[in-house]
Amino acid sequence: MIPVLEVDLGPGVRAGFTTRAGGVSGAPWASLNVGLNVGDRPADVLANRGLLAEWAGAPVMFGEQVHGATVRVLDEAGSAHSGVAGEADALLTGSSRFAVAVYVADCVPLLLADAQAGLVAAVHAGRAGLAAGVVQAAVDTMLARGADVGRVRASIGPCISGDAYEVPEQMRADVAAVVPEAWAVTRWGTPGVDLGAGVAGELARAGVRAVSRVSTCTFTDERLYSHRRASAEGRPTGRFAGVVRLAG
To answer: What is the DSSP string of 134-188?
Structure first.
């Protein structure tokens, strides 16, 4: 079984974040890369997604992420055998027939659940998606489907920290104008964006109080994929996953 950083989102919910370990991909993606569009062999990526499905106990659905705020609701497995849910940066389901997941390599993988309502969601919150409102959109969609904000549990997964995510001054200002908590200064004294703090701020504004966080920084922890670290080293990198499923 692959190693997963498991989190508690309530009874009957299985949720966690993968690392780089336990997969079949060769260097430089070694080894549990779940991203299909990063230069890795597709057969290896699909094998890795299969290992993730074994852990989840069901097929895993990923969206085609575009750094937006679209939430896609999946009521039935449909094309779950393909693992493709269409364009979306958040996937929500009330079905136990499959898991929903997002893939990241510095962005925030956010997992949500209302176990009593039987609803779970996986959210991809990068800088653009955070500013576009993907967190609020995911929570609103859960509430519209019967969740209670007082019961919703959230887990903010590993992401690049604010002291490592350097951006131009104007970019920081633009993000902070929408999400004030995202304003940051890097360890180099330059403008930064704190994605994790931004997601936490958005959850608080949405009324979600039961929030846990895996505070590991992807840029500094080589157990995880980091697009920014790999780019600085002149090489491609893979993607790890945040995945959640109603266990039935």
So the answer is: HHHHHHHHHHHTT--TTT-EEEE--B--TTT-B--HHHHHHHHHH-GGGEEE-TT
